[in-house]
Every structure is written in structure tokens, then in C-alpha cells.
Backbone:
């Protein structure tokens, strides 16, 4: 099973829209009910990589489904028709924003479950002697299922990070592809502890040139702006809606060429619709329908900040650029502060360019104690291995001790960044 070797530059289409106003934080935060809920009073959310706040558009759709449409969808009754239509809407609108065909997008219970099912399909579809490349920069969800294929005779090849920096160098991938036996390359767009954004289009092109497909874990990157999967060229792209302002669902893109080659994993009679082939369990109807609220949110931000644009792919690209620019602005003072804290080892790049605002720190103090001390000062964060034991071990960090992770999104305020820095300073002697 080999990939089409057509190469893609990975260029995003221009958003083609003039900005009406600079980033409007007040407008953005007004889209998230959590910011006005008493439960969050006095707390700043800095564990967004584990799950973001949910936008009102998603909450409204979920409530509406459970109150007005809670019946098996696609039946003749009006609530059933409305529920099915909203599920179809979610798939169509998100696929359009991701730059893929509607049937190439499917929903599952989580990205972990989606990857597991996909691995079973590949295991049955690979020929004897085939090889799979997996990195040690990944969250375990995009590592473990592929690694277990080695027990079934698949040649597993590890693409290793730099132990000092966690950097995943494309130059180190080339030798792993040289003999032409690799059929799949699995890697993250962005690690959930290293934070560096990998050059996806370049890596995908390398995989395709070697006759392999590419599976990209976008869980830690999609919350910072939906990617243009069509431009990146990835054959599989996975992300979690619950970390992307939405419900607890995994979103999986499988391009048609690959989906047609892999064996069906669903009921035998669901083998024709591509979006059903790799979801053996019935989807959560309400959460799939509510995922259309993610598209609503993107469109609301675009309408507020940009001139009208009819193409959803271009709207998503413009909003992604807006989010990422704001996040780089927020990161700058925090990274400057951390540069003066030798007792807090930062994993990944030390500048905002080329990284996501997911900052894992290796403190001299106990990470759990530091997280508790920060929580007492209004900073909601966590200390753990974050299911990233392999990259931590590769960088000489004891996963049992873990790291302190500070992760934020475009809706974080400068005042919250200031509060975080003040809390870190107050706990310096911990």
C-alpha cells in the first residue's frame, strides 16, 4: 500500500480579506460563558492544552439538541430531520474550513480512539515487510497504537528528537525512508510538551516522495487556529474538538485515496460512506451536531474582524492568523520572564516564533507542589507527564516527576499573563 507521490507545497490560500479592526479581546471573551461564571472568578485558565473553554455557540447547539432534537436522527419526524441536518452541517462546514471534502471528515469519541481504529485498519492493509515511522515527540495517542504494530511483524522505525531541545529534525527522517519500505509516517504538528511547531508540509512531502502516507497529530495545534489540511497535504489529520472550543469529540480527516485503500472498520453495510468506514461505534449525535458551533465561532470572529469573505477556507485561514498573532503577543513577555529564571527549564523554543503557547517547565522545585502553589494564587494549571512520557524520557526528564505545564489560547488576557508572572515570582523560593 503506497501513497501517491504527488508533492504539495503546503501553502495556505490568502485570506483575501481586509481587517476591519484589530484583535478585539472583549468581543472574543464575550463568546465564552466561562468568563462570566462565578466558578471561574479569580482564576485564570492556564491548562488549555488539556481542554479549552467552550464557546457559547457550541453550548447553545448542544442544549438545543438535548431539548428539541433528542431522537434518533434522519427519521421522518421534524425533530429527527433537524438533528440529522445539524450533524451533516457540522461535518460539511468543518471540512470546508479544513480544506477537505465533506466525506473525508469523521467524528469519533476521542483522538486516542480514532487513532487506535486507524491503526487496526493499517495493520490489515500493510504488506509483509512494510515499515512504519513513529516519532518519540508524540503524545501517546499517536504513538502507542502504531508501536504495537511491531508485535504483528511490522518494521517499526523511531524518528528521535534532539535530547537537549526536543526538536524533531526532518533531516533525521530521511535515512529512515531511504529503502522505500516505509508506508506510513506518524508525527505531531506540535508536541503537547515541547511546543515547537513542526514543518508539516515539508515532512508530508518527504513521506510522499518515499511512497508513504503521512498521519499528523494536530491535537496540540488545532486550538490555535484550524489548519488548512488540504494545503498541508496530510493523508490523515487528527484533533480533539474539546481542546478546540467544542464538545468532547475526536475529529479525523482521512483523504479519499487512503480511505479507499484501507479495510473497512465499521459494520459491513457502512463500508461505502467514507466518513463511516473508520468509526465502528455510533457517533454521539448531540456532540457531533454541537461541533457546528466551532464553525459558528470562527465565522463570528471573522465577521467581527474582517471584511466579508464567501469562502469558508479563507475565513478559517484569516481567523487562524488572527489567533496566532495574538498568542505570539501574549507569549513574548512570559518567555522574556522565563529567560531570567534558570530554575525553570523551558522545553522547546525560547521565542514566540515557531512555537505554540504550550509551555512545559522543568522546575527545580517539585512540579506538583508548584502547581498547587500557583492554584492558590489564582492560576489554574497542572503538573504531570501529560501522556508524553516518551518525549520527556528522551529529554532526560523523569515522567514520574513530570513537568509544570502552562498553556493558553487567544482568549487569554494580558492581565492574566501578568498575574501568571506575578504568581511565578511569588513562588520563586518554593
Residues:
Amino acid at each position: 500500500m503506497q501513497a501517491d507521490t504527488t508533492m504539495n507545497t503546503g501553502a495556505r490560500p490568502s485570506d483575501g480579506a481586509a481587517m476591519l479592526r484589530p484583535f478585539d479581546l472583549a468581543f472574543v471573551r464575550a463568546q465564552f460563558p466561562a468568563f462570566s461564571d462565578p466558578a471561574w472568578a479569580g482564576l485564570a485558565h492556564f491548562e488549555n492544552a488539556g481542554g479549552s473553554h467552550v464557546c457559547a455557540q457550541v453550548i447553545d447547539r448542544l442544549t438545543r439538541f438535548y431539548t428539541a432534537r433528542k431522537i434518533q436522527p434522519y427519521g421522518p419526524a421534524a425533530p429527527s430531520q433537524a438533528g440529522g441536518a445539524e450533524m451533516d452541517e457540522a461535518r460539511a462546514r468543518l471540512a470546508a474550513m479544513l480544506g477537505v471534502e465533506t466525506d473525508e471528515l469523521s467524528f469519533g469519541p476521542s483522538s486516542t480512539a480514532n487513532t487506535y481504529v486507524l491503526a487496526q485498519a493499517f495493520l490489515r492493509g500493510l504488506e509483509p515487510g512494510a515499515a512504519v515511522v513513529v516519532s518519540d515527540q508524540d503524545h501517546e495517542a499517536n504513538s502507542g497504537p502504531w508501536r504495537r504494530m511491531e508485535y504483528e511483524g511490522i518494521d517499526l522505525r523511531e524518528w528521535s528528537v534532539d535530547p537537549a531541545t526536543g526538536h524533531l529534525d526532518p533531516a533525521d527522517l530521511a535515512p529512515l525512508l531511504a529503502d522505500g519500505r516505509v508506508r506510513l509516517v506518524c508525527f505531531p504538528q506540535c508536541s503537547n510538551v515541547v511546543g515547537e511547531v513542526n514543518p508539516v508540509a515539508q515532512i508530508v512531502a518527504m513521506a510522499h516522495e518515499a511512497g508513504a502516507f503521512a498521519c499528523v497529530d494536530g491535537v496540540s495545534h488545532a486550538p490555535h487556529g484550524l489548519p488548512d489540511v488540504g494545503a498541508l497535504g496530510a493523508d490523515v489529520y487528527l484533533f480533539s474538538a474539546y481542546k478546540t472550543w467544542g464538545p468532547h469529540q475526536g475529529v479525523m480527516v482521512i483523504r479519499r485515496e487512503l480511505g479507499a485503500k484501507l479495510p473497512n472498520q465499521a459494520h459491513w453495510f457502512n463500508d461505502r460512506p467514507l466518513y463511516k468506514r473508520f468509526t465502528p461505534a455510533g457517533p454521539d449525535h448531540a456532540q457531533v451536531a454541537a461541533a457546528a458551533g466551532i464553525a459558528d465561532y470562527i465565522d463570528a470572529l471573522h465577521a467581527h474582524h474582517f471584511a466579508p469573505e464567501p469562502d469558508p477556507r479563507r475565513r478559517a485561514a484569516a481567523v487562524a492568523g488572527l489567533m496566532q498573532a495574538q498568542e505570539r503577543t501574549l507569549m513574548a513577555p512570559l518567555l522574556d520572564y522565563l529567560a531570567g529564571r534558570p530554575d525553570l527549564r523551558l522545553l522547546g523554543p525560547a521565542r514566540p516564533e515557531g512555537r505554540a503557547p504550550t509551555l512545559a517547565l522543568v522546575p527545580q522545585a517539585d512540579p506538583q507542589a508548584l502547581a498547587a502553589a500557583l492554584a492558590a494564587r489564582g492560576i489554574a494549571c497542572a503538573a504531570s507527564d501529560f501522556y508524553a512520557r516518551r518525549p520527556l524520557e528522551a529529554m532526560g526528564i523523569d515522567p514520574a516527576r513530570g513537568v509544570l505545564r502552562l498553556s493558553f489560547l487567544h482568549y487569554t488576557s494580558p492581565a492574566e499573563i501578568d498575574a501568571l508572572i506575578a504568581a511565578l515570582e511569588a513562588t520563586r523560593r518554593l
